[in-house]
Structures are given as C-alpha cells and as structure tokens.
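Please check the following for our workbook:

***
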Amino acid sequence: MIKLYILLGGNLGDKQKVFSEARAKLGQQVGTITNQSVLYETEPWGFESDDIFWNQVLEISTALSPEEVLLQTQQIEHELGRIRKANQYDSRVIDIDILFYGDQIIQTENLVVPHPRIQERKFALVPLSKIAPELIHPVFQKSIRQLLEECTDSLKVEIVTDTMS
C-alpha cells in the first residue's frame, strides 16, 4: 500500500455536498482515507473570482498505481460535474489534485508528482502541514513545514467555521 496525498478544491455549487461526495467516492474507488485536514476557505490562486474556494487534504492508503489514481480522480471529478476549460485557472465545482504518491517522483505526459507548484500555494501547504508536517518533498528534500515557512503566497487560508468537515 502507498500513502497518497490528495488536495480537494472547489468554489462552485454546494461545496459541503460536493466535498462529502468526493471523499466518499475516493474512499470507494481509490483507497482508504487514513487522515484528513479540516476544510479551509481560500482565495482564488492565479485568477480573479468572487467565489471563495474550499480546500482539504486527504491522506489515502492505496494499492492503485499513480496512473490508476489519476484516472479515478478524473472520473470522480467528471461524475461530480467538473467541466474542464481551456483556461487552467478558473472557477470549478471540484478539483482533485495528486500532491504526493509515496516518495515517488513521476513525470509523464499526463502526470507530474509531486504536484509541481505545491511549494507556491498556501491553500495546499496549510492543510497538508496540519496532517503531515514532517512529510519530506522528494524533489526539494524539505519538510512540508519548511516549505510552508518559506512560501511567499499571501492569499487568505482560513478554517471553514460554518460547517462540519
């Protein structure tokens, strides 16, 4: 079994329902969720939107290959109403990103792991640091805690207080 870290993100629709369904589907189709961060409200990164994002990191124990995980997460996004647009940064119902797959470094046409911009994004680092602060980034050889301390991203990342996670 491999320890997988996944980031959920979304800013459209009934976020509580979508995130709950995403967690359920990931648990059924990808592996056992062994840990999860609380939900965070975050400002859009890379574009402007009036709709605040929710983000959450899940730790999953999986027997799937990285490519199988990618196929399952893309299928789940589709089932939950994700419509991929030409613009990479846009509002969306759900986004499921693979942050880490064990300590593997993967670079294929369809998949780059660890996530190539995690070190630039507080919306990923903050929730990840709450459940895996000592996880070592296999490319930078730094802990998630260190990457968060060095991150220059100044966008808001706050715990969601109006719902149960």
The two ends are 26 Å apart (CA to CA). Helices lie at 15-29, 66-79, 122-131, 144-150.
